[in-house]
Design brief:
The complex is a heterodimer. Chain A contains 6 helices and 1 strand, in the order βαααααα. Chain A has helices at about 10, 15-40, 40-45, 55-70, 75-110, 115-140, and one strand spanning about 5. In chain A, α4 packs antiparallel against α5 and α5 packs across α6. The two termini of chain B are about 30 Å apart. In chain B, about 80% of the residues lie in helices and about 0% in strands. By secondary structure, chain B is mainly alpha-helical. Chain B has helices at about 1-10, 15, 25-40, 40-70, 75-80, 85-100; one strand at about 10. The chains are: A mainly alpha, B mainly alpha. β1 (about 5) of chain A pairs antiparallel with β1 (about 10) of chain B.
């Protein structure tokens, strides 16, 4: 299978590592609200694509990979950096999906409720990001 | 936000898990609040600008990957060093396409 579930990932991640990302995300949500009040929705909307959680995520991916290799008696410094680079390439593809999320929300918000728009746009994000990821994977396999 | 972080930690390979690093977690929380407090039209305008922010995020995360693969620096250093790319992309797109509407 191309994509698999690694349940150990949940155990490796400490509660404060989730909290850290929640705090960064919450801070950007609050900041976007303040910007929206002072400079309006056009400027505030830019920050909905701000890399709020990504730096913490990439750092944790590097740390977890390094620690996992160290437990097996291996030197994991290089593998940790490679894993963080893979994570960043995944985020690049996810960002393309985020453009789709924003486009669908922009077109639907004036006429429909958030209860319909947000799940639909999230499903579109997941479909677009997964499809692009698979397309990239197949392209690399054919080389 | 924590749900996206959890999803990002359970999937393998890492490049697939990375998709969730650019998930709409902040957008979902913010847009639900904004639509309730300031109305759906306000939220819709924010979404239009979000396309520029998301394009900035794509360039930002690609640059982080290049720093990591070519310079072999730590993820935190790469993430912070690339931050200027997000601001530049987002504000160039704002200046080119969105400023008239603000």
């Amino acid at each position: 299978m191309i994509v698999r579930i690694h349940s150990g990932g949940l155990r490796e991640t400490k509660w404060y590592e989730y909290l850290l990302r929640f705090l960064f995300g919450g801070a950007i949500t609050a900041l976007t609200g303040v910007i929206g009040k002072h400079w309006g929705p056009v400027v505030a909307g830019l920050f909905l694509g701000f890399p709020a959680i990504f730096p913490a995520s990439a750092t944790l991916v590097q740390k977890h990979t390094r620690e996992s290799k160290a437990r097996k008696g291996l030197h994991g410094e290089q593998r940790g950096i490679e894993a963080a680079a893979d994570d960043a390439l995944g985020a690049t593809i996810g960002s393309a999906g985020l453009v789709i999320f924003a486009f669908i929300s922009w077109r639907l918000f004036p006429r429909h409720s958030p209860a319909l728009v947000l799940p639909l746009a999230t499903a579109a994000w997941l479909a677009a990001a997964s499809s692009l990821w698979l397309a990239r994977k197949w392209r690399h396999r054919r080389r | 936000m924590s749900a996206f972080a959890m999803l990002g930690s359970v999937f393998k390979p890492t490049s697939f898990a990375g998709l969730f690093g650019a998930g709409p977690s902040v957008a979902l929380a913010t847009l639900a609040l904004v639509a309730g407090q300031q109305g759906r039209t306000f939220a819709g305008i924010e979404c239009r600008s979000m396309m520029a922010g998301a394009a900035g995020l794509a360039i930002y995360s690609w640059l982080v990957a290049q720093f990591l693969m070519r310079l072999r620096i730590s993820a935190l250093k790469a993430a912070l060093a690339s931050m200027a790319a997000w601001f530049t992309t987002a504000f160039v797109l704002w200046e080119a396409f969105l400023r008239q509407g603000s």
